[in-house]
Amino acid sequence: MFLTFIFLISVGVQIQTLAGEVTLTAATVNQELSHNGKGLSAFAKTVEEKSNGKLKIKTFFVGQLGDASSAYQSVIDGDIDIIMIDAGWFSEKHPVFNILECFYLFKGSEHYVEVMNTPGKLKFFEDKILKDPGLKTIYYDGGDVCL
Q1: 3-state secondary structure of 33
Q2: pTM above threshold 0.85
Q3: Is residue 143 part of a domain?
Q4: Is 1 part of a structural domain of the chain?
Q5: CB distance 141 to 36 below 8 Å
């Protein structure tokens, strides 16, 4: 089973009061019509619906806001609110993330779905990037992990 883990990350996006409309920026290098792009679009739509339109997410695809490296740095710097990115970008600070890009990490698709859909199964990795560089997991997408 070929897996590419993608991370959707947010740095310190804390909205104290939604008195008015708030618009966040989400970026990915993925195509809008790819399964990852569709997942990001669905996430943005759900957030807007659940907030009754008070919280919107403007999505940017195919590297419109920069390649993966610059988007990763931009979310750390707070210039972009949310990104969807490959786990490899975390390996520089935390080499243990390399395991997430290994072939045959899971016994099969059922095992993969169980790990992705069971809260806390990836807490070890989530805690590492929450601590350094301060990125929080939002959701997991398909064959991807999203922070």
Answers
A1: coil
A2: no
A3: no
A4: no
A5: yes
- Mean pLDDT per 10-residue section of the chain, whose length is 147 residues: 42 50 91 91 93 93 92 89 82 84 79 82 89 83 52
Helix, strand or coil, per DSSP, at residue 3: coil
CATH number of the structural domain spanning residue 65: 3.40.190.170
Q: Which domain holds residue 106?
A: 6-137
Q: What pLDDT does 9 receive?
A: 47
Q: Which residues contact 24 (CB under 8 A, 6 or more apart)?
A: 13, 55, 56, 57, 58, 81, 82
Query: How many domains does the structure of the chain reveal?
Result: 1
pLDDT at 6: 43
Q: Given this model, what pLDDT does residue 133 score?
A: 87
Residue 25 and residue 65 in contact, taking contact as beta carbons nearer than 8 Å? yes
> Is the distance from CB of 147 to CB of 7 less than 8 angstroms?
yes
CB-count exposure of residue 22 (10 Å: 0-12, 13-18, 19+): middle
Residue 59 inside a domain? The answer is: yes
In a domain, 39, yes or no: yes
Give the Cα separation of 23 and 85 in Å (integer): 21
